[in-house]
Amino acid sequence: MVLNQNLERVRQQIVLANIQELLQKISRRCFSACIVQPEDKLCSMERDCLAACMDQFLASVQVVSQQYFQRRLRQQQQQRLARERRGY
Asked: Which parts of the sequence belong to the Tim10-like domain (predicted)?
């Protein structure tokens, strides 16, 4: 029971760290691409650029994630079939 709680806590910390890293990457990449000269306020062109940049970045992350999980699932299925063929 305690082991399961600890594992779940670690999983949550990993998810949180991944989200924080993703946000940092989006911020750096989109800020560099969209903000020419930082001011007190963003102009509409900068806001539009940031929104489009973030949408595009998140869409890319989603495609990569889907491909990764599909590949991982195929690998697991292949491993399971290989074990079944060997009699494990």
From this structure: 10-68
